[in-house]
Design brief:
By secondary structure, the chain is mostly helical. It contains 5 helices and no strands. The protein has helices at residues 16-39, 49-55, 66-76, 86-95, 98-119. GO terms for molecular function: calcium ion binding.
């Protein structure tokens, strides 16, 4: 089995902020769901190692090694079942987007501040 000398997630190009700006929140979630649907194992309803390996070329990830793909699954697998649910996939995509995470924090903070102002 080939081993990658670097984390495959380091080369991830962050298009989520651009997509969010063009599509809005609902549109971005819809596109993330579309991405999940490209990679999902149709019988199991989750992204497995096998389905990720089989379908990764659709997302331009055909050059990743088996170890790289396993690393990606492990990074997002919160429940430890070895696969990614739709929620785990979406959370992973947001976690891989520092710019989008920062924008989300800013919007959340503004909403809280506004709520506090309105409440007093």
């Amino acid at each position: 089995m080939a081993s990658s000398s670097q984390n495959p997630l380091q080369n991830f190009h962050d298009f989520l902020p651009l997509m969010a700006g063009k599509l809005g929140g609902d549109g971005l979630i819809e596109e993330l769901c579309n991405g999940f649907n490209l990679l999902v194992d149709g019988e199991k309803g989750v992204i497995t190692f096998e389905s990720l390996k089989r379908n990764s070329a659709f997302l331009g990830l055909q050059d990743l090694t088996d170890d790289d793909l396993r690393c990606m699954l492990k990074e997002g697998d919160f429940d430890g079942d070895g696969a990614l649910s739709q929620m785990e996939f979406c959370v992973l995509m947001f976690r891989l987007s520092p710019e989008l995470m920062e924008a989300s924090r800013f919007v959340f903070q503004e909403a809280i501040e506004q709520e506090l102002k309105d409440g007093y």
